[in-house]
């Protein structure tokens, strides 16, 4: 097995991969790979046959949540890394519209066949809209974490202060690679 990192010409190789990272069927993997290979808007980390992506131009938290700012509103979702580690999503719990949310506190949960994980809000503010499509199609978190799998639209109450705790796509990509390497080392020790 091989790990290859590709971002701005970097290459890294290793010999193991976590079985916890292997959640995509071959068909889904092929379709997802074709989609991101045609688009240069992503940083990519290849682990064995799995591609982890970080979308450029977004802000991120260390808790694997992304933020897209538009017209003073923040669309948020979970990263590709988050959904791959979790596995096949079967249920998404989101807060009601109008709820106040606090940065770094849980505001929803994602349930997979492996576990239930809290989603930590990246900003202080008010929930303006939730992605109702996830009620009937929670698998959008797996198939399109940066698209149809978005979670909520938040009206930030203190954006400039909250931004101090967020990171760029490039910084998050480095953090994600570090998390992957830690997982690989942990699994190597356990083997």
Architecture overview:
This protein has one domain (3-190): Beta Barrel (OB fold (Dihydrolipoamide Acetyltransferase, E2P)), CATH 2.40.50. The protein has 6 helices and 13 strands. The chain has helices spanning 26-37, 80-86, 133-136, 140-143, 159-163, 169-190, and strands at residues 3-6, 42-47, 50-55, 59-60, 65-70, 73-78, 89-93, 100-101, 106-112, 116-120, 125-130, 152-156, 167-168. The strands form 3 sheets. A 7-stranded antiparallel sheet has the order 8-11-12-6-5-4-13. 34% of the residues are buried.
Structural class: alpha+beta
Specify the biggest β-sheet.
Answer: 7 strands, antiparallel
Quote the CATH topology: OB fold (Dihydrolipoamide Acetyltransferase, E2P)
Mean pLDDT across the residues is 83
Proportion in β-strands: 25-35%
Give the beta-strand count. 13
**Approximate helicity band:** 25-40%
CATH architecture: Beta Barrel
Describe the secondary-structure layout.
Elements: E1 3-6, H1 26-37, E2 42-47, E3 50-55, E4 59-60, E5 65-70, E6 73-78, H2 80-86, E7 89-93, E8 100-101, E9 106-112, E10 116-120, E11 125-130, H3 133-136, H4 140-143, E12 152-156, H5 159-163, E13 167-168, H6 169-190
Antiparallel strand pairs: 1-2, 2-3, 4-5, 4-13, 5-6, 6-12, 7-9, 8-11, 9-10, 11-12
Summarize this structure as a short list of keywords or feature phrases.
single chain, 191 residues, alpha+beta, OB fold (Dihydrolipoamide Acetyltransferase, E2P), three-stranded antiparallel beta sheet, 6 helices, 13 strands, 28% helix, globular
């Amino acid at each position: 097995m091989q790990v290859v990192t590709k971002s701005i010409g970097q290459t890294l190789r290793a010999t193991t991969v976590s079985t916890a990272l292997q959640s995509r069927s071959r068909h889904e993997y092929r379709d997802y790979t074709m989609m991101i290979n045609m688009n240069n808007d992503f940083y990519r980390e290849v682990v064995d046959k799995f591609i982890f992506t970080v979308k450029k131009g977004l802000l991120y938290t260390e808790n694997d949540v992304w933020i897209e700012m538009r017209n003073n509103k923040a669309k948020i979702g979970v990263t590709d890394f988050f959904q791959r580690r979790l596995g096949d999503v079967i249920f998404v719990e989101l807060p009601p519209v109008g709820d106040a949310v606090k940065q770094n506190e849980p505001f929803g949960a994602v349930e997979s066949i492996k576990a239930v994980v809290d989603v930590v809000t990246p900003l202080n503010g008010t929930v303006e809209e939730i992605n109702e499509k996830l009620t009937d199609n929670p698998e959008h978190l797996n198939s399109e974490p940066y698209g149809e799998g978005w979670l909520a639209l938040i009206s930030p109450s203190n954006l400039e202060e909250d931004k101090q705790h967020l990171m760029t796509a490039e910084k998050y990509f480095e953090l994600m690679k570090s998390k992957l390497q830690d997982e690989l080392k942990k699994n190597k020790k356990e083997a």
